[in-house]
Amino acid sequence: MRNGISFGLKAKFMLVSTLLVALTSITWGGWFYLNESEHLMERLEANGRLMLDSIQPPIIDAILYERLGVIEENAGLLDNFIEQIVENRELQVVYAFITDTHGKVLAHSDYREFGKTYRDPLTAAALTRNQFYGHTALLPSVGEIYDMAMPLQVAGKSWGALRVGVSLARVEKEKELMAREIILFSVLFFLIGNVVFYVVGLTMSRPLLTLSQAMSEVNHHSLDAVPLPAYMHRHDEIGKLQQSFSEMLERLKKAEQERQGALTRLMQNEKMATVGKLVAGVAHEINNPLMVMSTSLFHLEKKVQPELVKYISHHKEGVQRIESIVRQLTDFSRAGTLDLQRVASDQFFQEAAGFATLALKKFEVRFQSSNNADATLLLIDKGKMHQVVLNLLLNAANASPLGGLVQLLAYLEDGSYCLAVHDQGGGIAPGDKERIFELFYTTKPGGDGSGIGLAISKSIIEMHKGVITCESRPGDTTFLIRIPLQKEADHG
Ligand SMILES: Nc1ncnc2c1ncn2[C@@H]1O[C@H](COP(=O)(O)OP(=O)(O)OP(=O)(O)O)[C@@H](O)[C@H]1O
Ligand SMILES: [Mg+2]
């Protein structure tokens, strides 16, 4: 188990996206604010300059006229221009004044400044370098202003300077408004961005969660019932993940089936081995008293009164039945080893059909055999294979109705020698189908069957590396044996 805080994929995605959105909002907002502030200042400067440019020629004219004596000095003409500048509605003019070439004030918006000499750097620069100058400055009584100096110059000759200070209050107000709008917009962008990313994160993580839930429900018992979300149609990573998951489930199912099969086989083999040992011992012990009983009955039969003979024959039947079971069990105990020989398939089939005809004589059924296999050499334990075929034929005959058809067919298919035993009996109930190959499983009543035949047959066929299967429905039952055609070495 891991200690500490651990974040899910969705939380990580949300964290990164929130940071990203916040960073984008701040960067974009900051950039926009700076850019727009610069524009506002540029606009202010352009407006100021335009105003100074337009008013400069008449001011120069007025100074010239005064110098030439065309108009009276101090006639108030320059004051009119200053007034005109101060009254400008577009710019909030804080002060305006005109100086002569020595910086002496000729007209000022504040009449107390009249006659003073200005030697500040801005005025000096405008007078000496004949250039427009402007910069922001802090005026204690007003606050921030944009300070401008325009040289009054005609044909390269300077007549003084025009100085105007414009309040930045309006610009600041606009900037403040803009900042509010930007913050509002950024917050909106942040919120919408987060909502969008949340939805995207949810859309991405939900299939993963559903898949992981489906995965957590996987265990041995639920393999077939694991609910699979329908993401297979998706062509993205989620679709691929689901596909891999389904494939993994299929592999697990197959592995589980194989495991179950192997487990059943193992248990069956163990059961067989145990029973085999037990049977060998018991059979040996039973055989001796049985032989004594048979011989005694043989002698008794000749000597008892005729009315008692029927009882003797009942005894004989019982003893024969016990002998048959003991024989079968002894065979079963010896089923663990094979005596393999090369046998021509035709010869094997002929013998099997011959035994069958004899064995089925006591049944009222029709027997048919048909050999459709091309002649080949089989590597089999002939005796045990005959025993298997006989078991199947006896079962078929037992199950058949009166006059029913019992068939024995041989053919080659997919590299295997196939033997099919077919009958028209009532078939095997679906519930019994799983169990008929189990040792001692029988449906025959009253000790008619011992339930050994199919168990022995299956064991023998598997020792030949073959399979025995059964298809059954009422009136149509077929047991099929497949023995692979292979070399002697393969049997180990
Ligand atoms: N052809 C068949 N049609 C219907 N049921 C069958 C057929 N073959 C086998 N079975 C069923 O399978 C069971 C097991 O068969 P199995 O041969 O192992 O034992 P059995 O025939 O009952 O006894 P025995 O050991 O004497 O052969 C039978 O009891 C029967 O119910
Ligand atoms: Mg049988």
From TrEMBL:
Keywords (A to Z) from UniProt: ATP-binding, Cell membrane, Coiled coil, Kinase, Membrane, Nucleotide-binding, Phosphoprotein, Transferase, Transmembrane, Transmembrane helix, Two-component regulatory system
Pfam families: HAMP, HATPase_c, HisKA, sCache_3_2
Domain Histidine kinase residue range list: 281-487
Subcellular location: Cell membrane
Family matches, as PROSITE patterns: HAMP, HIS_KIN
SMART domains membership: HAMP, HATPase_c, HisKA
Leading EC class: transferase
Coiled coil regions, renumbered to chain: 238-272
Designated name of the protein: histidine kinase
Organism: Geobacter sp. (strain M21)
